[in-house]
Amino acid sequence: MVSIDKEIMIKAPVEKIFNFVIKSSNLVQLWPSLLEVNNEKLLPNDGYSARWVYKMAGIIFKGKSQCTDVAPYRWISVKCEGTVDSTMTWTFRTKDNISTKVTITLDYQVHLPLLNRLAENTIIKMNDRESELVLGNLREFLEKN
Q1: Which domains does the chain have, with CATH numbers?
Q2: What pLDDT digit, counting tens, does each position of 53-93 carry?
Q3: Whole-prediction pTM
Q4: Cβ-contact 52, 63 below 8 angstroms
């Protein structure tokens, strides 16, 4: 199991950030490797479930995700199943009325039977960089809009 933990400060109210991030289809605007989100449905816990298509290291992955735990304006936990099983947790900590610290934690496991250690390390590094990029894109998008 691999874990990635990244955080960023965004000059936007926590409500705006939370309401954007919780909707799976919005992440396509931020996540370069996330090619498609479809079949999105609102769940009783006010989170979403969806199907997704993701491209990593030239390989297309398909799967489904579901918000398993939602604490409005505090955190969102999303369970993803497919070639890559993961749990993605978004945490939001308001610093004042205009700034929010956003943390994304990814815990995942890649199920590729022939994946050697070198390829695994490459994918880990790619995901680490991509997590930083996603948070940077989130900040840029929400501070402009």
Answers
A1: 2-144 (3.30.530.20)
A2: 999 878 888 999 999 999 999 999 999 998 778 999 999 99
A3: 0.89
A4: yes
Asked if residue 110 lies in contact with residue 120, where contact means CB atoms within 8 angstroms, the answer is: yes
pLDDT tens, 105-138? 999 876 655 455 556 677 778 889 999 999 999 9
Could you please report the per-residue DSSP string of the chain? -EEEEEEEEESS-HHHHHHHHTSGGGGGGT-TTEEEEEEEEE-TTS-EEEEEEEEETTEEEEEEEEEEEEETTTEEEEEEEESEEEEEEEEEEESSSS-EEEEEEEEEEE--TT--HHHHHHHHHHHHHHHHHHHHHHHHHHHH-
**Burial (CB count within 10 angstroms: exposed 0-12, middle 13-18, buried 19+), residue 65:** buried
What is the predicted pLDDT for the residue at 57?
Answer: 76
List, edge to edge, every strand of the sheet that includes 2-10: 2-10, 100-110, 84-94, 75-82, 59-71, 48-56, 34-42
Q: Using an 8 Å Cβ cutoff, are 111 and 61 in contact?
A: no
pLDDT score for 118? 57
- Residue carrying structure tokens 């099983």: 85
